[in-house]
From TrEMBL:
Gene3D superfamilies: MFS general substrate transporter like domains. This is Stage V sporulation protein AC. Keywords: Membrane, Transmembrane, Transmembrane helix. It comes from Paramaledivibacter caminithermalis (strain DSM 15212 / CIP 107654 / DViRD3) (Clostridium caminithermale). NCBIfam families: spore_V_AC. It holds the Pfam family SpoVAC_SpoVAEB.
Length: 152
């Protein structure tokens, strides 16, 4: 019984020690970085959309091309190592837009490229995005079937 009490008190002392040493995050600063970086990414996307509309594309086509460009930019900047640095500074502000989805696909692939193109890049490319895609496709099929059967 005494050993257990001693163990519990040591655990409490250790937790106090760790809490003193762990740096406290600045929530206001982190929130502002996330807000401004996420806003900047979305502003760039809106600028691209508006520019494409000015060149004569209709709204649907301009939005489609904008998504393609933003996914490319997210993947390209991840490949250069820039998006990861941005993500460390901006946190959720960099992962919420669609460019963050491209980063989630490319980052694992870049990490395992030394294992080859098939077993490294190919196998790890969809380690995070794969479940998201499967869930998205699966839920769209279920919703489509429900819509079909209930609107007949």
């Amino acid at each position: 019984m005494k050993k257990q009490i001693t163990k519990i008190s040591k655990e409490k002392e250790y937790k106090k020690y760790v809490n003193k040493k762990v740096p406290k995050p600045s929530y206001l600063k982190n929130s502002l970085w996330a807000f401004f970086v996420g806003g900047a990414i979305c502003t760039i996307a809106q600028f691209i959309t508006n520019t494409l509309k000015d060149f004569g594309l209709n709204k649907t086509d301009a939005n489609t091309v904008t998504v393609i460009i933003m996914v490319f930019l997210g993947a390209f900047l991840t490949g250069l190592g820039i998006y990861d640095k941005l993500g460390k500074k901006a946190g959720a502000g960099s992962i919420v837009p669609i460019s963050g989805f491209a980063n989630s696909i490319v980052a694992p692939a870049m990490e395992f490229k030394r294992e080859g193109y098939v077993l490294g890049v190919g196998a790890k490319m969809f380690s995070l995005a794969g479940p998201v895609l499967v869930y998205g496709f699966g839920s769209s099929v279920i919703i489509g079937l429900l819509y079909y059967f209930f609107t007949r």
